[in-house]
Design a protein that fits this description.
- The complex is a heterodimer of chains A (304) and B (675).
- Helix content of chain A is 47%, strand content 10%.
- Chain A has 14 helices and eight strands.
- In chain A, strands 2-1-3-4 form a four-stranded parallel β-sheet, sandwiched between helices. A four-stranded parallel β-sheet of chain A has the order 6-5-7-8, with helices on both faces.
- Chain A is globular, with a radius of gyration of 19 Å.
- Chain B is of the alpha/beta class and 675 residues long.
- Chain B has five domains: 159 residues, 3-Layer(aba) Sandwich (Rossmann fold); 172 residues, FAD/NAD(P)-binding domain (3-Layer(bba) Sandwich), CATH 3.50.50.60; 82 residues, 2-Layer Sandwich (Alpha-Beta Plaits); 168 residues, FAD/NAD(P)-binding domain; 60 residues, Alpha-Beta Plaits (2-Layer Sandwich), CATH 3.30.70.
- In chain B, helix 13 links the parallel strand 22 and strand 23.
- The longest helix of chain B has 21 residues.
- Chain B is globular and about 90 Å long.
- Classes of the chains: A alpha/beta (304), B alpha/beta (675).
- Chains A and B meet through helix 10 of A and loops of B.
C-alpha cells in the first residue's frame, strides 16, 4: 500500500477539526497510511499571493521540501492547501527560473525541493483512484441507507487543475458517495463559488452566493450537503442562520465534510467523525435513516 | 571517373537568401568541391530564366550532373527534372537539396545556416556524381474509380466521372446514400430545401448505368497503387433480397419493434428494427437491425417475412466480401458531430431542452420526428425564447482549437427558422461571426433585421437553477457580454448547441488503410494546403468534402468535382508514370529466404515459387529501402540509395567545404541581406 505524506493545514487544526478527525478515522479504517509532514507551516491560503508572490511560493515549497524523501505522494484535504501545493509544484516544473528563485529562498533554511518530486493529490482522488470502487463498496456497512446528499466541490479542488475530472461538472465525489450507498442528488451548482472570504469583506455579496448554494440543495431534496473545503463548510454552515435572516428564508441544511459522510458509511462512530461539531446539526438527518445509525453516536458531543 | 557537375543555389527571394548567404555557398562549393564545373546562385531558380540557365549550362558546359539547392522537392523537383530533360540530360541525374524548409526557415543563425547549406550541397554533389540514369516506367490506369462515402461530396465525384462513361463504385456505410445533407432541413444562405436539391442527385446516382452503389458496406482493405488498386469491401448482410425487394415498406409497417434512431434522426426520432432511414432513401430498400430484431435476439416474430408480398426477407443472408479493381480512390467520408456531453456545463443530456444542432435540423424537417414543428422535448410546447450557442467544441483549447466553419451560418439559419415559424425570441451567443462566403454576410444582415439578438461572448453555462422568480422553470444562459462588459443571465425555453465538426471516429484507420496521413486534429492531409487540396501524398488517392477539414455544401461539391476532374484526366491519359526510384532484386543471387516478402509495407514483393526467388513489382514499390536493409545476402538494390551513393553523400557532408572561409559570412551576417 502506498504511504502518503499528509499536509493537514491550519484550518484542520482550528476551525475544521471535524474534517481532521474524519479524515484520520476514514483513512485508518481504509488502510490509507498518512504520514504528517514534520514541522509543517501555513500555506498562506489565497491571501499571501497578493502580498508577496515569492514569499507565498516559498512558504508552500517549504512544506514540499520537508516531505520525507521516501514518500512520493502528498495529500491535503483542505482545498486551498491542496491547490497551493499543486500550483507551486507545477509552477516550479514549468518555469525553471521561478523554481530557482524559490529554491534560493529555501536554501536560507537549508532546504531544497526538486520540482515534480512528489505528486500532489487531493484526498478525493486517493479514495477514487487508489482505494477504488471495489474496496469502498466492500467496506460500506450500508449505514448511509440512501441518505440524500448534495455533493459540493467548490472552486479550488477542481479549478484550475483538474486532470482527471470535469472542472465544471465534476463527478468523483458523486461516485464515491454513490458507491458507499448515498443517494447523490442532482446538484448543478456543485462547483460554484461559496464566496470564500467575502463573508468577512462584503456580507451582502457572500449571502447571495451562499443562498444560491443552499437553495439549489434544498430544491434538489438534499438532506445534507457534503463538501471538501473548510471555507465552504464554514460559509454554508456558520452563515446559514444569517442568510435565512437576511433573505427571510428557512433553510435547514446540515453541512458535513465528505469524509464525515464516508465515515458514516464505513460504520465509524459519529463522535469519532466529529459529527456534532457542525452548527446546523446533522444528527436529525442521519437519524432519519435511523435503522442503521451507530448507537454509540447518541452519546456524542453537541454544540451548545 | 570525372564528372562535370552544375550547382545552382536559389535565393527564393528572401526566403532562402534572408538567412543563407547563397552567393558564398555557390562560391565555396564551386572553388572547393571536385568535379564542380559550374556553380551559380540566382534569385529564382524556378523561373523560366533560372531553368534556361541550367539548360544552357548543360549544353555549353557539357554538364552531366546537376544539383539544385532550393525548396522542397515536393514543389519543384519536376520543374528541374524537366529542365534537365529538355537539355538532353537524364532527369534522374539531377539532385535537389532542400535548403529552404530544412535550413533557412528553421535556422536563426546566419553563419550556421550558411555552413549547413554548404555541407548539404557538397553532400549532394558527391552523391549525384554516383547516381545512375534511370528510365521512368508507365502503368495503365484502370478506368474504374472507388468513392468511399455517399454524401454530397462523394456523389458529386461519382456522377461527374460516370457522366464520361467510366465505372464508379460508391461504398456507403449507412443503408442509404445521402450523408448529412439528407438530414438537413434548409440550406444556407438561400434557404432552399436540402432534400429538394439532394434527392435528384441521389436518384441520378442510384439509376446511373456507370455507378455501382455498395450501401450498408464498409471498406475492408486497399492494396496496389495508382492505376491499379485492389480493394475489398464488406457488404454487410441486409437480410433483404435486393433482387426482389420492391421497397413497398410493408415490412417496416408490420415490424413491432421501435428503436431510437441515433443516426439519421440524431436520437430525436424512432425507427423500426427493419427500416429505411428516410422515405427518399437510395437504394429504396430496408435493412434489418440485428441488435433489436426479435428474430435475431430471441428467435421469434418474423412478421416482416410473413407480410412481405415478394418474399424478399432473407434471414440467412451473410456478410459478403466484394473485391474490386480500380485505378483511383476518392475518400469522401465526411465528419462526426461533436459529442456535446463532453462540455457538461452546457447541460446536454442532463437538461431536457438542450438540443444539438443536428437534433434541431431534424426537428425543423417536415419529414422529421416532429413533422417540422419547433417544440420542446415534451413534443407539445412551443418555446417562447431560444438560445443558440456557437462554437461548442470549436475554438476551444479543451476540445478542438479549430473553427468548424459551417456553424455560424447554420446558427443564423436556425435563428431565421425560429423567427419565421414561431416568432420566438432568439439569442445567438457568438465569439466572432464568420460569414465569409458568397452571399453569406448578406444573410447575416437579413437575420439581424429579422430581430435575432446577438450576444458576443462565450457562454459559461446553461443551468436550470434559478436565482430569481423570472428564472423559475427556465434554462438560464450565463454569459459575459463582451460588448457591454457585463455578465448577463438570459432565461430561455430552449437551447441549441452548435456542435463542432470532428473527424470520423475511425478516420485514422481508414487513412492507414489508404496509405495517407491525418493532421494533428485528425482530418485527412491534402497534398498541399493551398495548391493541391484535392490530392494526397499517395498517388491515386484523392479527398473530397469534410473529411479533409470542416466544409459547407458548396465547398464539398467543388472539391468533389475537382477530384473527379483530376481522375478523368488520368483516365484519359490512360497511363501513369511510375517513379523509377525502386528496389530490384538480383535474382541470380537471391536465396529465396523470403525475409523481404513480409517486411514490405506496400506488399510489392512477390515470391516466384517455381524459381524460388523473390521479385519486386515496380508499380507497387515506393523505394522505401526496408527490403534493401533487411536482405541478409545484400542482393537488393535500392536505386538512388546505393551504399556508395549514401556513403559519398555522408563524406561530402562531413568534408566541411566551409572550413576557414568564414570571413564573407561574417560580413554577410553583419550587413544583412543585400537585395
Amino acid at each position: 500500500m502506498v504511504r502518503y505524506a499528509f499536509y493537514p493545514g491550519c484550518s484542520l487544526d482550528v476551525s475544521a477539526v471535524a474534517y481532521d478527525e474524519s479524515v484520520k478515522a476514514v483513512c485508518a479504517k481504509l488502510g490509507v497510511d498518512l504520514v504528517p509532514i514534520a514541522d509543517w507551516n501555513c500555506c498562506g491560503a489565497t491571501e499571501y499571493w497578493g502580498h508577496d508572490a515569492l514569499i507565498a511560493q516559498a512558504l508552500i515549497a517549504r512544506n514540499l521540501a520537508r516531505i520525507d524523501p521516501e514518500l512520493e505522494q502528498v495529500t491535503a484535504p483542505c482545498a486551498a492547501c491542496y491547490l497551493n501545493l499543486a500550483k507551486v509544484d507545477r509552477m516550479m516544473r514549468e518555469v525553471p527560473a521561478a523554481a530557482e528563485r524559490v529554491n534560493r529562498a529555501l536554501a536560507a533554511g537549508g532546504l531544497h525541493y526538486e520540482p515534480g518530486r512528489v505528486r500532489v493529490r487531493h484526498l478525493i482522488d486517493v479514495l477514487y483512484e487508489d482505494v477504488g470502487r471495489e474496496r469502498l463498496t466492500e467496506a460500506s456497512t450500508g449505514s448511509l441507507d440512501g441518505l440524500r446528499v448534495a455533493p459540493y466541490y467548490g472552486c479550488q479542488v477542481v479549478r484550475p487543475f483538474c486532470d482527471n475530472d470535469d472542472s465544471e461538472q465534476p463527478v468523483r465525489m458523486d461516485e464515491v458517495l454513490t458507491w458507499l450507498g448515498a443517494e447523490v442528488v442532482e446538484y448543478p451548482v456543485k462547483s460554484q463559488c461559496c464566496g470564500g472570504h467575502m463573508s468577512q469583506i462584503s456580507e451582502n455579496e457572500a449571502f447571495e452566493l451562499i443562498r444560491r448554494l443552499l437553495d439549489c440543495a434544498h430544491r434538489s431534496g438534499a438532506e445534507v450537503i457534503a463538501c471538501m473545503c473548510p471555507m465552504c463548510q464554514l460559509n454554508l454552515d456558520a452563515y446559514q442562520g444569517r442568510v435565512n435572516h437576511h433573505f427571510g428564508t428557512g433553510y435547514h441544511l446540515p453541512v458535513l465534510f465528505f469524509t464525515q459522510v464516508v465515515g458514516v458509511a464505513l460504520g465509524i462512530e459519529h463522535d469519532v467523525l466529529g459529527i456534532g461539531r457542525e452548527i446546523v446539526p446533522a444528527r436529525e438527518a442521519l437519524r432519519a435513516h435511523g435503522a442503521t445509525v451507530v448507537a454509540a453516536a447518541e452519546g456524542g458531543r453537541d454544540v451548545p | 571517373m570525372s564528372r562535370r557537375v552544375g550547382v545552382y543555389v536559389c535565393h527564393c527571394g528572401s526566403n532562402i537568401a534572408g538567412t543563407i548567404d547563397c552567393e558564398a555557398v555557390a562560391r565555396a562549393v564551386g572553388e572547393r568541391v571536385a568535379d564542380v564545373a559550374v556553380s551559380r546562385d540566382y534569385k529564382f531558380m524556378c523561373s523560366s530564366l533560372g531553368q534556361s540557365m541550367i539548360q544552357e549550362d548543360i549544353e555549353k558546359e557539357k554538364l552531366d550532373r546537376v544539383v539544385v539547392a532550393a525548396c522542397s522537392p515536393h514543389l519543384h523537383e519536376k520543374t528541374f527534372r524537366r529542365a534537365c530533360s529538355n537539355a538532353g540530360l537524364n532527369p534522374y541525374l539531377m539532385q535537389m537539396v532542400n535548403v529552404r524548409e530544412h535550413i533557412s526557415w528553421v535556422t536563426k543563425d546566419q553563419v550556421e545556416a550558411t555552413r549547413k547549406a554548404t555541407a548539404m550541397v557538397t553532400g549532394a554533389v558527391e552523391r549525384v556524381k554516383r547516381q545512375e540514369a534511370l528510365e521512368p516506367q508507365y502503368v495503365p490506369v484502370n478506368p474504374a474509380t472507388l468513392v468511399v462515402g455517399g454524401g454530397i461530396a462523394g456523389l458529386q465525384t461519382a456522377i461527374e466521372i460516370a457522366e464520361f462513361g467510366h465505372p464508379v463504385y460508391v461504398v456507403e456505410r449507412e443503408p442509404s446514400i445521402g450523408g448529412h445533407m439528407a438530414q438537413f432541413d434548409k440550406t444556407f444562405p438561400t434557404l432552399d430545401c436540402s432534400a429538394c436539391i439532394l434527392t435528384p442527385r441521389m436518384s441520378e446516382a442510384g439509376q446511373h448505368d456507370c455507378i455501382h452503389l455498395l450501401t450498408w458496406s464498409e471498406l475492408e482493405s486497399v492494396s496496389g497503387s495508382v492505376g491499379n488498386f485492389k480493394v475489398r469491401v464488406r457488404k454487410k448482410a441486409r437480410y433483404v433480397n435486393s433482387e426482389i425487394c420492391t421497397g413497398c415498406g410493408v415490412c417496416e409497417e408490420k415490424c413491432p419493434i421501435k428503436v431510437v434512431d441515433d443516426v439519421f434522426e440524431a436520437g430525436l426520432g424512432i425507427r423500426k428494427a427493419i427500416y429505411m432511414p428516410f422515405p427518399q432513401a437510395v437504394p429504396k430498400m430496408p435493412v434489418i437491425d440485428t441488435a433489436h430484431c426479435i428474430w435475431f435476439v430471441r428467435g421469434k416474430c418474423r412478421a416482416c417475412e410473413i407480410f412481405c408480398p415478394t418474399k424478399a426477407i432473407a434471414f440467412d443472408q451473410k456478410d459478403e466480401i466484394v473485391e474490386l479493381e480500380v485505378g483511383n480512390i476518392v475518400l469522401a467520408t465526411g465528419y462526426d458531430l461533436f459529442d456535446c456531453r463532453r462540455l457538461p456545463q452546457y447541460g446536454y443530456g442532463r437538461l431536457d431542452n438542450v438540443f444539438t444542432s443536428l437534433e434541431f435540423e431534424r426537428m425543423c424537417n417536415a419529414a422529421g420526428p416532429t413533422g417540422g414543428r419547433i417544440v420542446l422535448r415534451d413534443r407539445e410546447t412551443e418555446p417562447r425564447s431560444v438560445a443558440v450557442i456557437h462554437c461548442v467544441g470549436s475554438r476551444d483549447k479543451r476540445t478542438n482549437e479549430y473553427c468548424s466553419a459551417t456553424c455560424c451560418m447554420a446558427a443564423l439559419k436556425f435563428g431565421h427558422l425560429v423567427r419565421e415559424r414561431i416568432g420566438a425570441e432568439v439569442y445567438s451567443f457568438y465569439i466572432d461571426i464568420r460569414t465569409f462566403s458568397k452571399d453569406y454576410d448578406e444573410f447575416y444582415q437579413r437575420v439581424m433585421d429579422e430581430g435575432v439578438h446577438f450576444v458576443r461572448g462565450r457562454v459559461a453555462e446553461v443551468t436550470d437553477v434559478p436565482r430569481s422568480p423570472a428564472e423559475e422553470g427556465k434554462l438560464v444562459v450565463q454569459c459575459e457580454d463582451t460588448l457591454l462588459g457585463v455578465q448577463r443571465r438570459i432565461p430561455v425555453d430552449m437551447v441549441i448547441l452548435m456542435g463542432a465538426l470532428e473527424p470520423r471516429a475511425d478516420a485514422r484507420d481508414l487513412a492507414l488503410e489508404a496509405g495517407i496521413s491525418c493532421s494533428m486534429n485528425g482530418w485527412f492531409t491534402e497534398r498541399h494546403p493551398k495548391l493541391d487540396p484535392v490530392a494526397t501524398m499517395t498517388d491515386g488517392v484523392f479527398l473530397a468534402g469534410a473529411c479533409q477539414g470542416p466544409k459547407d455544401i458548396p465547398s464539398s461539391v467543388a472539391q468533389g468535382a475537382a477530384a473527379a476532374a483530376r481522375i478523368l484526366g488520368m483516365i484519359t491519359r490512360g497511363r501513369v508514370e511510375i517513379e523509377p526510384v525502386v528496389a530490384t532484386i538480383d535474382e541470380e543471387r537471391c536465396s529465396g529466404c523470403r525475409i523481404c516478402n513480409a517486411l514490405c509495407p506496400f506488399h510489392a514483393i512477390e515470391f516466384d515459387e517455381a524459381r524460388h526467388v523473390s521479385h519486386v513489382q515496380a508499380s507497387l514499390c515506393k523505394g522505401c529501402g526496408t527490403c534493401v536493409a533487411a536482405c541478409p545476402a545484400q542482393v537488393i538494390r535500392g536505386a538512388h540509395f546505393m551504399n556508395e551513393q549514401i556513403f559519398a553523400e555522408i563524406e561530402g557532408l562531413l568534408a566541411d567545404a566551409w572550413s576557414d572561409v568564414s570571413e564573407p559570412v561574417a560580413a554577410f551576417a553583419a550587413g544583412g541581406v543585400d537585395d
